[in-house]
Specification:
three-stranded antiparallel beta sheet, 46% helix, 8 strands, globular, 9 helices, alpha/beta, five-stranded parallel beta sheet
């Protein structure tokens, strides 16, 4: 399989084939845990001026890759970056930058490879969303919406491509031990840290996240699993009209327990965020800034 990813140099170790592609920007884990997967080396997020050139850059880069190593059979649309902060403290340019990179970066990558996949009647598209794509938390008003948008794009595209031979998948990496996650922690507001601690503050290795997604991908799942069991249950509970990751019997059995667990979980993180807001206001004499968040942060 050939795999391509924005703004990453890569080598496909299986068979010794090598190639390069660029045109996005990512700080995420990628599918990098097995010899049959592309290995990626992250570069900094490109400036806004470069982001506007993405469609043409991606098309040219993918054409170059296909000429050298053959058609792209699997696209991992993994471009993404997060700039945590309170909504009232961030200008609109932060949200615009996040949407251009996280959402339109993936959209443009899909647009570049899909026509050839359709002509061959085969291919796989993996949209790397985030745990923030199924729940939203304080500090991620610019980031989480881009991942919700990816999930919505995936649902629509999957339905649109039924019967074409091209499959769509969505991955939801939890908090992952990457350089991007380390940078996120520098600007997370107290409410964000509080919600994360209340939710368990788990941090997973890139290898475990990639391996979990790959196993799910090999099984043909639409919602790719992560090493976070609780998050997998949350994704399953929010599958909607898309393919459900759990068998009907198991989902039916777990339904009442999930309903209670989700309410308790939401109450715990809301309380943690609210207390962080109260402490901040008390320490600053009631100075500005937002209300309580309602979840835990999940960086790429």
């Amino acid at each position: 399989m050939s795999r391509t990813r924005s703004r990453y140099s890569w080598r496909e170790e299986r068979g010794g084939r090598r190639g390069k592609t660029r045109g996005g920007g990512s700080r995420s884990v990628g599918l990098s845990s097995t010899p049959s997967c592309a290995r990626f080396s992250p570069t900094p997020t490109p400036p806004d001026s470069n982001l506007r050139k993405l469609p043409q850059q991606l098309s040219e880069a993918i054409s170059s890759v296909e000429a050298e190593v053959g058609p792209v059979n699997v696209l991992v649309a993994n471009a993404g970056s997060s700039e945590p902060g309170r909504f009232v403290d961030q200008g609109p340019e932060v949200a615009e930058r996040a949407m251009r990179l996280n959402y339109f970066g993936a959209l443009n990558a899909v647009r570049a490879v899909l026509p050839q996949m359709l002509s061959r009647s085969e291919g796989r598209i993996v949209l790397v969303a985030s745990a923030a794509g199924v729940c939203g938390f304080a500090g991620f008003t610019s980031y989480a919406p881009t991942k919700w948008a990816l999930r919505g794009f995936g649902d629509c595209l999957r339905n649109e491509l039924l019967g074409t031979g091209v499959a769509v998948h969505v991955a939801y990496p939890p908090d992952t031990d990457t350089p991007g996650f380390e940078r996120e922690t520098l600007t997370k507001p107290p409410e964000c840290h509080a919600a994360s601690r209340a939710a368990g503050d788990a941090l997973y290795s890139p290898e475990s996240v990639a391996e979990s997604a790959l196993r799910s991908l090999e099984r043909g799942g639409y919602h790719l699993s992560s090493p976070d069991f609780g998050q997998n249950l949350l994704v399953a509970s929010m599958a909607g009209l898309s393919p459900h990751p759990l068998p009907l019997a198991i989902e039916f059995f777990l339904a009442p327990f999930l309903a209670v667990a989700m309410r308790v979980f939401g109450w715990i993180v809301d309380r943690a965020s609210r207390r962080a807001v109260e402490e901040r206001r008390g320490g600053s004499g009631g100075g500005g800034g937002g209300g309580g968040g309602d979840g835990r942060p999940h960086g790429e």
